[in-house]
Amino acid sequence: MAMNSNVTNLVQESVFVPYMHRPETYIVSGLFLIILIVGVFGNGMMMITLGADSTARNTSTVYMFSLALGDILVILTSVPLTSVIFTFDSWPWGQTVCKLSECVKDISVGVSVFTLTALSAERYYAVVNPLRRHVAGMKAVPLALLIACLIWVLAIVLSMPAALFSDVMDIDITTNSSIHICNPFPVELGASYRRGVVLFKFLAYYIIPLLIISVFYFQIVRHLQLSTRNMPCELSPMQRLEQIRSRRKVGKMVISIVLIFFICFLPYHIFMIWFHFFASTLNDYNKYWHIFRIIGFVMTFINSCVNPLVLYFASTTFRVRCQHSEYFVKNQEPFPSRVDLC
């Protein structure tokens, strides 16, 4: 199970309770099973719907497809492997799977976060400044494909420390027994490496993307509010009301994406910063922090399930396409319209 040197000391200094006697073993396993089913189905349908009609392919569908692929990678790999932490007393596999699990987790999280950031930039230029969506003469869709590929490359590069340094180590829990743990922060690299990695992930996977996403989305909302007040006078009252409702719906959706991202990842990063940077961690760690830690892990995986739900309920066009995707794919007929991701 994924632990670090501080948790190692915590295990050694406290009375070890077998996981079969812990309530979180059964609660978390049930939640992870729900996340696995909902996430695979939702993101799978999202990928099928976005990829089924080549004539409706645009920059937004490219990013959303990549986001769904990254979320499925999280759900199919990290969810089952992380459930081991709350199910078994000891890491049941060897060092290779340990390295692979930590590496894949970082790849999938990186792809999800960076794709969401790229999508926010794409939405900004699509709504606020559509004339600047082309770079160096490239068309919008090829450029989006290139950026999506670069995101995967960047995520893989940033996951290399986990692949290289993660290791399985033995922890004595009693005089005659021990457990194996998958440790992403080897003891021999010291506290500086552990804190450096935690701080880097906090900035690269949370704070910096969150700031970028927030700036782009709030600029979109501001632009939509200004354009609502400056609607053409020739529109009828009913047309003006319909446009106002539509633009408010856009604003609510983009703000909800920012809030969901912020809320889902905040508990996890709060715990990691507190646990690895405060000297009194071992003395202050109690059942409340333990519950908070579990909630943080679960919420990061819930984030991989909610994007299809947000898109489904916010976009009527996507909902119609999703509901009829099986029919249109089976009969090789074009979809009724391109996806309006706003």
Feature tags:
342 residues, two-stranded antiparallel ribbon, 2 strands, 4% strand
Outline the structure in words.
- The protein has 342 residues and is mainly α.
- It has helices at 5-13, 23-52, 59-83, 95-127, 140-158, 160-165, 190-229, 237-277, 281-284, 287-314, 316-331; strands at residues 167-172, 178-183.
- It is elongated and about 80 Å long.
- It contains 11 helices and 2 strands, in the order ααααααββααααα.
- The two termini are 40 Å apart.
- Helix 8 packs antiparallel against helix 10.
- Give the C-alpha Rg: 23 Å
Major beta sheet, specifics?
A: 2 strands, antiparallel
In angstroms, what separates the terminal alpha carbons?
40 Å
Shape: elongated
Segments where pLDDT lies below 50 for 5+ residues?
A: 332-342
Enumerate how many helices there are, as a single number. Answer: 11
Q: Give the structural class.
A: mainly alpha
Order of helices and strands: HHHHHHEEHHHHH
Mean pLDDT: 78
Q: How many strand units?
A: 2
Indicate the percent of residues in helices: over 70%
What proportion of the residues form beta strands (DSSP E)? under 5%
* Strand order, largest beta sheet: 1-2
How are the secondary structure elements laid out?
Layout: H1 5-13, H2 23-52, H3 59-83, H4 95-127, H5 140-158, H6 160-165, E1 167-172, E2 178-183, H7 190-229, H8 237-277, H9 281-284, H10 287-314, H11 316-331
Antiparallel strand pairs: 1-2
Quick structural overview:
The chain is mainly α. It has helices at 5-13, 23-52, 59-83, 95-127, 140-158, 160-165, 190-229, 237-277, 281-284, 287-314, 316-331; strands at 167-172, 178-183.
